[in-house]
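Most newcomers find our protein records easier to grasp once they have seen one. To make this concrete, we reproduce a full record directly below:

===
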Amino acid sequence: MEDKLKMAILDLNEGRPNQGMRGIRDIAAMYSHIFDIDEFDVRTKHEIPDKSYDVYISSGGPGNPMEGDGVWDKSWYDLVETLWQHNKVNQHDKKYMFFICHSFQMACNYFELGTLAPRKSTSFGIMPVHLTRFGENDEIFGHLPDPMYAVDSRDYQLIQPDLEVFRMNGSKILALEKIRNHVEYERAIMAVRFSEEFVGTQFHPEADPLGMKIHFQKAEIRENVIKNFGQKKYDTMMEQIDDPDKLALTHDTVLPKFIENAVEKIRERNSVLV
């Protein structure tokens, strides 16, 4: 029997109730026959995985992505640097990492890919996301239409990319936020392939339609959304949740393809080494 691979899920939610971790766990569980899966509470318990894992998924979370307590954030950055350097010097032993929302912002800040800045107002809802030419040809995003749709929830964003740093790192911008002709603000970067092994999204690819629908139908959650964003925003979001070509397609594609591609490459590597 082939030994299982190892997956680490990094929880950056600071102990707050959220739908993201449930979504990540559900997708990871689809591959439990391939992976032994461990979860790490990064921010409240200062837990961090070592580099023995094959695949790492780092979650979203609250707060300013440029600030931490000097302990958990340093450990998180140290892990990213360790895995990045490991991949540079190991041709046949790669580590794969996916960054979601808060983790994506931290990674972009760490690699100095552009300006990470607070938004004028919170972006919230199921939004269109437009692919770049790199996204259209990407092994993950190439399976999605343009535009694709995703759950967007952010107070910060990456803008003004430093294209020289992108070029030096071999990184690619895969997607941009919706086109807004009526405003003068620069469009935020919504997905990046940092390297062949590292990928991240500003949006939440783990969000699933059924879970989202149940969550936003709760009276307290519904009233909070309407209070902060309006009835029209709430009604539009609930309609989009039921569209199989929107949220469901993104949920069924992005993280699953990332995991499946990683497994395929790891197995190819192992067959070469046998």
User: Anything to note?
Assistant: The chain is about 40% helix and 25% strand. Residues 247-273 form the longest helix (27 residues). The beta strands are 5-11, 35-41, 55-58, 96-100, 115-131, 148-159, 172-177, 189-193, 198-201. The first strand starts at residue 5 and ends at 11.
